[in-house]
Write a structure and sequence with these properties.
The chain is of the alpha+beta class and 249 residues long. The chain folds into two domains: 102 residues, Roll (Ubiquitin-like (UB roll)); 139 residues, Fumarate Reductase Iron-sulfur Protein, Chain B, domain 2 (Orthogonal Bundle), CATH 1.10.1060. It has nine helices and seven strands. The strands form two sheets. It has a five-stranded mixed beta sheet, covered by helices on one side.
Length: 249
């Protein structure tokens, strides 16, 4: 083993619906470079030791969000966690919680995307289109900038205790994507979205645990966005401009 490599024990929660009931743990040992990512480690195990391991990945650069999983008990993107930042030489990998497991680290994302689609995550504006773009001021654009960063990885929603207990809850990601359009000065569908979210399975299910904010790989202020949607429902007022400080940032 080269001096700059690190020997890891990787414990993977395995589940094959054709033969496993309940899920089981399987352990692998592998040498990894400090600058390898957990995704690299996992792929090397698959390629070199057990090709039957099920995982989902795509861009491998923290943009697609497809390799979300629980790493040492916390939701994260495997492509963003470096070996050098792992605190121990034992790594546990599990599927994200609250969604049906298809195989090993692969979950069925359909319930998550059904919640996402339910909040109308698209611009609504039936006014006659202008001859150019629908213009916004820098302050209007900055108002919803944070919630445009969502990559739909489900890290926030599947770290949320209320979602674990009630899969009907729309979840943090859906609310963040509703927020993105509720506070868009060009949009005219805010009232309909707020009506959808003003429900027992909408924003009021949030218990302000902050797990969602901690889990977000894009550093979105998820809990803050949820509170802003609640505030609009209570006050009936939508502030469509960010502060000067936010615009400068």
């Amino acid at each position: 083993m080269a001096d700059d490599t690190r020997r890891l024990t990787v414990k993977i929660k395995r589940y094959d619906p054709e033969k496993d009931a309940p899920p089981r743990w399987e352990q692998f040992t592998i040498d990894a470079h400090p600058m390898d990512r957990v995704l690299d480690v996992l792929q090397n195990i698959k390629w070199q030791q057990d090709e039957t391991i099920g995982l989902r990945r795509s861009c491998a650069h923290g943009v697609c969000g497809s390799d979300a999983m629980r790493i040492n008990g916390h939701n994260a993107l495997a492509c963003k966690i470096l070996v050098k930042n792992l605190k121990a030489d034992t790594v546990t990998l599990e599927p994200i919680l609250g969604l049906p497991v298809v195989k090993d680290l692969i979950v069925d994302m359909k319930p998550f995307f059904d919640h996402y689609k339910a909040v109308m995550p698209y611009l609504v504006n039936d006014e006659p289109p202008p001859t150019t773009e629908r213009l916004q001021s820098p302050a209007e654009r900055a108002r919803f900038d944070d919630s445009t960063k969502c990559i739909l990885c489900a890290c926030c929603t599947t770290s949320c205790p209320p979602f674990w207990g009630d899969g009907k809850y729309v979840g943090p990601a859906a609310i963040v994507n509703a927020h993105r359009f509720i506070f868009d000065s060009r949009d005219r569908g805010a009232a309909e979205r707020l009506d959808i979210l003003n429900d027992a399975e909408g924003v009021w299910r949030c218990r302000t645990v902050f797990n969602c904010t901690s889990a977000c790989p894009r550093d979105i202020k998820v809990t803050e966005a949820i509170q802003e949607v609640k505030r609009v429902m209570l006050t009936g007022h939508i502030d469509l401009e960010a502060s000067a400080e936010a615009v400068e940032a």
